[in-house]
C-alpha cells in the first residue's frame, strides 16, 4: 500500500493507492490524513486512467514538417536549450517568453524548475495562469499586507458565518482555501448553528446546501462589496478590535465607499438593499465570520476592487486573524515568509507590454496579450516560447487566435505529457513522468489550508527506465540555455540546479520554517525531511493561529486598508452608479466535478455519461428566442462564435448564460483520442482578450456580452 497526496486540485486529498507491479489496483481516500480524513472525489480514481493512458507521451517529440518524430532525450534537450539560448542572444531577453500553467503549482519539481527557468531567462515576457485566475486577489493582498503570497483563508472549521462570492467549492473542492471534503465542512458550519450564504449568478451546488442564495449580476461584486462596507460604517457596525493600531486608511475607505449606499447599487447588482444590510449585520455580529470570494470575483471587471473590499469588510468587522474569521496559516514550508525574507515581494506597473501598454502585475504580463506580442512586428517581438504544464489555447481568451499566433513562433518548447491543442504547435515536447511516478511535497497549498498540516508524497510506481521528471527536464534546459551565455552563466546554472534540487530545497525550507528543527541540530525537536518522510499520512500541526501583526510586510508595517490605485478604481466605478444598465445576455463560466480545467478529458472514467459542455439558459431568455431545451444554439460575442447544446434551467438568473471552460478538443494533430470523442466547444473562443481587469491585467472571463440564437 502506498500513501500520497492527490495532485489534481487544491484540496490535496490524502490517497491510499494499491499497486501490483506497474499497475494501479485501487485508489481510496487515506483516512489518516490529518486534513482530508479519508475524503476523495471521482477525479482521484482517474489517476489510474492517466497512468495507463496510451495517448500520454513517454518520449520527447521533435517537429518534423507537419508531424512529429520521437527523438532521444539528450539530443532533444541539448538542441532545444541551445536554440533558446541562441535566440535570446540574437534578439534579446524579451524575445524569449514563458507560460507557466496551473499544474506547475501542483508539482514540486516543476515549480522549482520554473523558478530557475525564470531566473535564467530574466525576461519581461512572463505569462502564467495567474492572469487567468487569482491575479486580482494576489495584487490586493500585496497592497494590503505587503506580499502577494500572504493570502488569508477562512478559518472554515470554526467559522459561524461564511459569505461565499463567485465560488462553487462543493464542485471545485475549494481554491485559495485548501479544505478537502468541502461539502461536509460547509454542512458542519450549519450543524454548529452557523450560516452559509452564497452570492452567485447561478444557484450552484454550493448554493443548494447554503442557508441563503443571492443572485448577483455578473461583474458587479465591486458595487456589492462597496455597499456592504458602506453599511458597516453607516450603521455603526465597525469593530476594529485588537488590530486597530496596525491599520492604516480606515477613514479613506469610509470616504471612498460613502457614495455606494445599497439603495444606489441595487440597480447594478440586482441585490435588494435590505439584503445587503442584513448581510452586513450577519458578518459584523458573527462570532467568527468570513467573506470568501474566488474565481467569479477575480476574472471579472471589478476583480481587484472585489478582492480588496472583501478583506476590508473582514477587517472592519474584526474578523481578520481571529479563530472563525479569516486567518493566515503557519505552514511548515513557509514560502510567504521566504518571499518576504528574500525581498521577492512584488511590484505593479514597473513596465508595460510592448504592443498594448498593459501594466505588469507582480512581475507578469497579462496572458491575454501573449498573441499580439508574438504577431506584432518590432524589435522585442516574442520569437520563442516555453510552456510548462499549460494549455493556453483552451485556457486563455481568444485561445483560437493564440493558437494561430503560436504557429508563427520561431521556436516553441513545451513540457507536457500530452500532445494537445497547445503543444501541437511546439517544436519540441518534453513529457515528464506521470504524477504517480515521482516524489512530491506541496509548496503552495499547505500555506492556504484551513488547518496547518504537512505531507510528503513518495512515488507510488517506479518510473520507466530513462524517463525524466519535470525537474530533470527544466534543470537540463536551464543548463543548456545558460551555456549559450558563456562559461560564467553556465557555472552558475550548474550550481543552482544542484542547490535547488527538490529534496534539498525541501530540507532547507522545512528546517528554517516555523515548525523546523533549525539548520544545526541533528537530533533536536522540530521538522526535518527525514521526519516528514517517516510520516506516511502527513503531520498535523494544529488549527490556524493568530499571526498578526508580525507578518505584515508593508513599508510602514501596517495593513493598508486604502491602497491608492484601489481607491482610484473605486472612484471610477462611482461614475457608473446612475448610468442605465446594458441590456442583453452575459456569459459566465462553471466547473463540473469530473473535469480539471483543460485536461483530464482523456480519462474514460471521467468523460462517460451525458455531455457536459452545455449552455445553461433561463426559461424566459429561451422563450423569447424560440429556443427549446436540448437544441443546438449559436453563441456569439465580439470575439467569436461557438455552437453548443442548450439546457434550459432557472438555476441561472435571467439575462445570464453559463458555459464551462476547458473544452474544444481537436482530433489530429492533437493526440487525445478520448477527449476528441467528446470535444465540446471552447468558451474561450467567446472571451475577449481586449477586455482586461485594469489593475492586475487579469482576463475578464465572466460577464462577457453575448447573443444566443437557434443554430442554423
Ligand atoms: N473561460 C474560462 N477560462 C479559464 C477559466 C475559467 O474559469 N473560464 N479558468 C482559468 C483558470 S482558474 C486556470 S488555473 C487556467 C488553467 O489553464 P492552464 O494553465 O492552461 O492549465 P490546464 O488547463 O490545467 O492545463 C494543464 C496542462 O498541463 C499538463 N500537465 C498536467 N500535469 C502536468 C505535470 O505534472 N507536468 C507537466 N509538465 N504538465 C502537466 C496537461 O497535460 C495540460 O496540457 O484556465 C483558466 N481559463
Ligand atoms: N472539478 C473541478 N475542480 C476544479 C477545477 C476544475 O476545472 N474542475 N479547477 C480548479 C481551479 S484551477 C480553480 S481556480 C478553482 C476555482 O474554484 P471556484 O472559484 O469555486 O470555481 P467555479 O466553480 O468556476 O465557481 C465560480 C463561480 O462564480 C460564479 N460567477 C461568475 N461570475 C460571477 C460574478 O460576476 N460574481 C459572482 N459573485 N459570481 C460569479 C459562477 O457562476 C460560478 O458558480 O477550481 C479548481 N477545482
Ligand atoms: S478533491 Fe478530488 S481532485 Fe481534488 S485533491 Fe481531492 S481527490 Fe484529488
Ligand atoms: Mo485556477
Q: Mind explaining what this structure looks like?
A:
There is one protein chain. This protein is an alpha/beta fold and 712 residues long. Among the domains are: 61-133 and 334-542, Rossmann fold (3-Layer(aba) Sandwich); 585-710, Barwin-like endoglucanases (Beta Barrel), CATH 2.40.40. The chain contains 25 helices and 30 strands. The longest helix is centred in the first third of the chain and has 19 residues, at 73-91. The radius of gyration is 24 Å and the shape is globular. The chain binds ligand MGD (2 copies), iron/sulfur cluster (SF4) and molybdenum atom. One ligand MGD binds at residues 9, 102, 133, 165-169, 171-173, 175, 199-202, 204, 216, 218-219, 221, 294-297, 300, 588-591, 593, 595-597, 702-703.
Question: Which secondary structure elements does this structure contain, and how are they paired or packed?
Answer:
Blueprint: E1 2-5, E2 14-20, E3 23-29, H1 42-52, E4 61-64, E5 67-70, H2 73-91, E6 96-100, H3 108-121, E7 126-128, H4 135-145, E8 153-154, E9 161-165, H5 169-172, H6 182-191, E10 195-199, H7 205-209, E11 212-214, H8 221-234, E12 247-248, H9 250-257, H10 262-269, H11 273-285, E13 289-293, H12 295-298, H13 303-316, E14 326-327, H14 335-341, E15 348-352, E16 359-361, H15 370-375, E17 384-388, H16 392-395, H17 399-406, E18 411-415, E19 428-430, E20 440-441, E21 451-454, E22 456-457, H18 470-483, H19 487-499, H20 502-512, H21 529-533, E23 539-543, E24 559-560, H22 564-574, E25 585-588, H23 604-607, E26 615-617, H24 619-624, E27 632-636, E28 641-648, E29 656-658, H25 673-677, E30 704-710
Parallel strand pairs: 6-7, 6-17, 9-10, 9-13, 10-11, 12-24, 17-18, 18-19, 25-29, 26-28
Antiparallel strand pairs: 1-2, 2-3, 4-5, 4-19, 8-14, 15-16, 20-22, 21-23, 25-30, 26-29, 27-28, 27-30
The structure holds ligand MGD (2 copies), iron/sulfur cluster and molybdenum atom (MO).
One ligand MGD binds near residues 167, 201, 216 and 597.
Amino acid at each position: 500500500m502506498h500513501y500520497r497526496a492527490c495532485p489534481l486540485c487544491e484540496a490535496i486529498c490524502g490517497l491510499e493507492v494499491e499497486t501490483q507491479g506497474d499497475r494501479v489496483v485501487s485508489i481510496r481516500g487515506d483516512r489518516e490524513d490529518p486534513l482530508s480524513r479519508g475524503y476523495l472525489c471521482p477525479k482521484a480514481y482517474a489517476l489510474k486512467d492517466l497512468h495507463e493512458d496510451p495517448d500520454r507521451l513517454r518520449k520527447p517529440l521533435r517537429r518534423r514538417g507537419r508531424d512529429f518524430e520521437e527523438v532521444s532525450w539528450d539530443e532533444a534537450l541539448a538542441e532545444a536549450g541551445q536554440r533558446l539560448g541562441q535566440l535570446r542572444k540574437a534578439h534579446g531577453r524579451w524575445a524569449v517568453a514563458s507560460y507557466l500553467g496551473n499544474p506547475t503549482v501542483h508539482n514540486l519539481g516543476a515549480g522549482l524548475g520554473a523558478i530557475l527557468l525564470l531566473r535564467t531567462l530574466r525576461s519581461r515576457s512572463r505569462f502564467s495562469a495567474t492572469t487567468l485566475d487569482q491575479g486580482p486577489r494576489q495584487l490586493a493582498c500585496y497592497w494590503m499586507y505587503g506580499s502577494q503570497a500572504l493570502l488569508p483563508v477562512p478559518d472554515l472549521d470554526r467559522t459561524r458565518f461564511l459569505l461565499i462570492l463567485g465560488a462553487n467549492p462543493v464542485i471545485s473542492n475549494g481554491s485559495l482555501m485548501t479544505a478537502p471534503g468541502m461539502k461536509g465542512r460547509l454542512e458542519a458550519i450549519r450543524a454548529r448553528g452557523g450560516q452559509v450564504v452564497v452570492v452567485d449568478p447561478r444557484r450552484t451546488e454550493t448554493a443548494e446546501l447554503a442557508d441563503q442564495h443571492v443572485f448577483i449580476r455578473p461583474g458587479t461584486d465591486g458595487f456589492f462589496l462597496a455597499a456592504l462596507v458602506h453599511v458597516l460604517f453607516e450603521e455603526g457596525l465597525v469593530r476594529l478590535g485588537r488590530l486597530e493600531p496596525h491599520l492604516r486608511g480606515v477613514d479613506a475607505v469610509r470616504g471612498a465607499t460613502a457614495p455606494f449606499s445599497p439603495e444606489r447599487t441595487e440597480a447594478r447588482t440586482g441585490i435588494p438593499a435590505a439584503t445587503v444590510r442584513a448581510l452586513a449585520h450577519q458578518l459584523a455580529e458573527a462570532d467568527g465570520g468570513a467573506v470568501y470570494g474566488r474565481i467569479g470575483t477575480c476574472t471579472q471587471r471589478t476583480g481587484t476592487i472585489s478582492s480588496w473590499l472583501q478583506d476590508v469588510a473582514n477587517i472592519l468587522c474584526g474578523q481578520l486573524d481571529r479563530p472563525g474569521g479569516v486567518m493566515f496559516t503557519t505552514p511548515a514550508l513557509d514560502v510567504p515568509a521566504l518571499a518576504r525574507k528574500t525581498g521577492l515581494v512584488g511590484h505593479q506597473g514597473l513596465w508595460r507590454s510592448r504592443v498594448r501598454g498593459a501594466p505588469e502585475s507582480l512581475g507578469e504580463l497579462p496572458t491575454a496579450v501573449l498573441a499580439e506580442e508574438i504577431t506584432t512586428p518590432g524589435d522585442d517581438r516574442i520569437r520563442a516560447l516555453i510552456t510548462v504544464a499549460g494549455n493556453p489555447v483552451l485556457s486563455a481568451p481568444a485561445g483560437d487566435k493564440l493558437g494561430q499566433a503560436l504557429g508563427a513562433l520561431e521556436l516553441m518548447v513545451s513540457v507536457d505529457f500530452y500532445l494537445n491543442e497547445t503543444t501541437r504547435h511546439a517544436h519540441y515536447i518534453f513529457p515528464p513522468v506521470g504524477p504517480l511516478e515521482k516524489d512530491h511535497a506541496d509548496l503552495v497549498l499547505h500555506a492556504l489550508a484551513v488547518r496547518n498540516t504537512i505531507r510528503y508524497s513518495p512515488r507510488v510506481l517506479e518510473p520507466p527506465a530513462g524517463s525524466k521528471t519535470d525537474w530533470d527536464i527544466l534543470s537540463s534546459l536551464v543548463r543548456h540555455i545558460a551555456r549559450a551565455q558563456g562559461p560564467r552563466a553556465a557555472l552558475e546554472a550548474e550550481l543552482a540546479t544542484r542547490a535547488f534540487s527538490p529534496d534539498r530545497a525541501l530540507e532547507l525550507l522545512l528546517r528554517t520554517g516555523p515548525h523546523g528543527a533549525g539548520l544545526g541540530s541533528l537530533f533536536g525537536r522540530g521538522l526535518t525531511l527525514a521526519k516528514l518522510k517517516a510520516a506516511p499520512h502527513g503531520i498535523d500541526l494544529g488549527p490556524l493561529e493568530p499571526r498578526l501583526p508580525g507578518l505584515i510586510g508593508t513599508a510602514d508595517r501596517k495593513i493598508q486598508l486604502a491602497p491608492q490605485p484601489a481607491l482610484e478604481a473605486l472612484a471610477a466605478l462611482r461614475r457608473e452608479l446612475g448610468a442605465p444598465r446594458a441590456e442583453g445576455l452575459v456569459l459566465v463560466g462553471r466547473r463540473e466535478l469530473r473535469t480539471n480545467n483543460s485536461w483530464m478529458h482523456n480519462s474514460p472514467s471521467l468523460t462517460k455519461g451525458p455531455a457536459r459542455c452545455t449552455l445553461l439558459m433561463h426559461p424566459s431568455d429561451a422563450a423569447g428566442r424560440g429556443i427549446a431545451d436540448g437544441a443546438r444554439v449559436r453563441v456569439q460575442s465580439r470575439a467569436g462564435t461557438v455552437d453548443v447544446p442548450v439546457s434550459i434551467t432557472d438555476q441561472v438568473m435571467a439575462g445570464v448564460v453559463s458555459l464551462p471552460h476547458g473544452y474544444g478538443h481537436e482530433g489530429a494533430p492533437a493526440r487525445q483520442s478520448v477527449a476528441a470523442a467528446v470535444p465540446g466547444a471552447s468558451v474561450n473562443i467567446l472571451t475577449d482578450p481586449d477586455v482586461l481587469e485594469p489593475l492586475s491585467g487579469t482576463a475578464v472571463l465572466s460577464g462577457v456580452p453575448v447573443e444566443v440564437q437557434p443554430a442554423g
